[in-house]
Amino acid sequence: MRSGCQLCGTARVKVSIDRGTRRYLFGNIALAAFLLAQVLDGVLTYVGVNTYGPHIEGNPVIAWMMANLGDALGLAAAKVTAGGFGVVLHLSGVHMAVALLTAFYFAVAIVPWVAILFLF
Predict the structure, then answer these.
(1) Does a structural domain hold residue 44?
(2) Distance, CA of 70 to CA of 93 (rounded, Å)
(3) Residue 99 belongs to what domain range?
(4) pLDDT tens track for 2-48
(5) Is residue 111 part of a domain?
(6) DSSP letter string over 58-116?
(7) Which of 18, 32, 77, 81 places its Cα 20 to 30 Å from the Cα of 69?
(8) Is 62 helix (H, G, I), strand (E, B) or coil?
């Protein structure tokens, strides 16, 4: 659809983004943020455990994996697994779940680690 100024002859093109495109964009942003949250959580957890010891890890599954596989491998396995589940959710089209999980990770994992490592 074209419209414009009749006096000067310039034209404007109206571009509309359909609902599917917005949903696709939201899903991609949610997935990228989720994967970033996994990386940040993994790095901060690794630094925290190496700074304060393994007792600082509050997730018993992650603590068990780190105790049995080593800090780096245990964390990497957990974060790759979580990232994989996020990708599966994304491909299943449940982008809101990915976005909510991202917010959850930032609230209960990343913010506390930042507070422990950089504010105290």
Answers:
(1) yes
(2) 35
(3) 23-119
(4) 555 666 666 665 656 677 788 889 999 999 999 999 999 999 999 99
(5) yes
(6) --HHHHHHHHHH-HHHHHHHHHHHHHHHHHHHHHTT-HHHHHHHHHHHIIIIIHHHHII
(7) 32
(8) helix
Residue 13 has φ and ψ, to the nearest 5°, of: -105, 125
Q: For 73-120, how does the pLDDT look when each residue is reduced to its tens digit (9 = 90+)?
A: 999 999 999 999 999 999 999 999 999 999 999 999 999 999 999 987
Whether residue 6 lies inside any domain: the answer is no
**What tokens were used for 34?**
């989720």
Q: CB-based contacts of 14: which residues, under 8 Å, 6+ apart? A: 1, 2, 3
pTM of the model: 0.81
The answer to whether residue 1 is domain-embedded is no
- In 1-120, DSSP assigns E strands to 2-4, 11-13
> How many structural domains compose the chain?
1
Structure tokens at 33: 């943020």
The three-state secondary structure class of 100 is: helix
Lookup: tokens for 114: 């930042």
